[in-house]
Amino acid sequence: MLQVTSDGGESQVEVLLPSEVRGPASVAQTLYRETEASRELRVKVAAEHRAMKQFEQLPEGRPSKRDRREIIRFRGRG
Fold first, then answer.
1. Which DSSP letter does residue 43 get?
2. 3 state SS of 3
3. Cα dihedral sign for 41, 44, 48, 50?
4. Nearest 10 degrees: CA dihedral of 25, 27, 32, 36?
5. Whether pTM exceeds 0.85
6. What stretches of the chain adopt beta strand conformation (E)?
7. Residues 1 and 12 sit within 8 Å (Cβ to Cβ)
8. Which listed residue, of 42, 56, 71, 76, carries a Cα 20 to 30 Å from 19's Cα?
9. Measured between alpha carbons, how far is 31 from 33 in angstroms, rounded to an integer?
10. For the stretch 19-41, what's the b/e string if a residue is b when 16 or more beta carbons lie within 10 angstroms of its beta carbon?
């Protein structure tokens, strides 16, 4: 069992057979299997992430000089 961490979150993978040489992805996919619980959690996290995007407010353009100064001050760099 391996625990893999990526941008998409964490997943648990069961290694079925190790490979001696590097090969194509289609062959590699036959050598491991993701656990069912891990797959369900990954799908749930992805759905939550998509749902949160509708509430995200993005700025209309580049920040002004005043806005940049406020950002720098907020981050504690200035």
1. H
2. strand
3. positive
4. 70
5. no
6. 2-6, 9-15, 32-34
7. yes
8. 42
9. 7
10. eeeeeeeeeeeeeeeeeeebeee
> Alpha carbon of 59 to those of 7, 35, 40, 45: distances in Å?
24, 40, 34, 25
Residue 54 DSSP class: T
Q: Give me the amino acid identity at 28.
A: A
Residue 5 pLDDT greater than 70, yes or no: yes
Place of tokens 């996919």: 29
Phi, psi dihedrals of residue 4, rounded to the nearest 5°: -110, 130
Checking DSSP bridges between strand 9-15 and strand 32-34, what pairing results, if any? antiparallel
Q: Is the dihedral of CA 76, 8, 39, 54 positive or negative?
A: positive
Strand 2-6 to 9-15 pairing: antiparallel
**What are the beta bridge partners of residue 32?**
15
